[in-house]
Amino acid sequence: EDEDDFGYRLFPDRNKKPQSFLVRSLFTFHNRCQLMLRLTLETNPYARLLLEALKQSGCTVFNDRHFSCENCDGCVGGGFDAATSQIVLCQNNIRQQSHMNRVVTHELIHAFDHCRAHVDWYKNVKHLACSEIRAANLSGDCTLMNEIARFKFGLKGHHQTCVRDRAIRSILAVRKVSKETAEKAVDEVFDACFNDLEPFGRIPHSKADAKRAYRDFQNRDRYTANL
């Protein structure tokens, strides 16, 4: 019952005995997931920046240890399991590389927050709300092209509206709280968490922005290192 309250119902494979390598190798979904994950980690600037930031924060990410391709509920693409510090990738729901890129980035932001801060994921909904705001803001979830693909259009302030809405949706997906509780938590921490741009230093609205952010991150301490 408690696990269900924390969203584990969305990830039924979490409680199953791991399958053997031979059995997993026979499933196309699993193979595809692993290949797309590898491509994301090696080439996507969002993910590469976050991996380096995690390493510098003392939380090196290992592919086999910290990522798990599993079958999930039909409504989710992935999740961060704080109990195991593991990112779940929903192999039955992620079908495109662009989707894998966004899911990995989104969950790596949660992992970064987990590493750098004392986040109470299970009892403090405002902590969860803050990380969901940051993930929606910095992962590319709310880029113009993604919003157009969702048939959502807006003018001034649309990015903030998208971030707020997606943060609320994420909370409701993994916690048994009312919509009013989720909205209140998001609204109370929105300004501070929306403006917390670590480790990007900017809102990366495109892959080009992410590449610039990654380059800036690599050069961040170069001046002081040479003093």
From TrEMBL:
Per the UniProt entry, what is one GO biological process? mitochondrial proton-transporting ATP synthase complex assembly
What highest taxon heads this organism's lineage? Eukaryota
Q: What keywords is this UniProt entry annotated with? A: Hydrolase, Metal-binding, Metalloprotease, Protease
Asked if the keyword Signal belongs to this entry, the reply reads no
The answer to keyword Protease applying to this record is yes
The protein's Enzyme Commission number = 3.4.24.-
Single Gene Ontology MF annotation? metalloendopeptidase activity
Pfam families associated with the record: Peptidase_M76
One GO cellular component, as annotated? mitochondrion
Q: Which family does it belong to?
A: Belongs to the peptidase M76 family.
State what protein this is by name. Mitochondrial inner membrane protease ATP23
Q: Which organism is it from?
A: Anthoscopus minutus
What's the name of its gene? Atp23
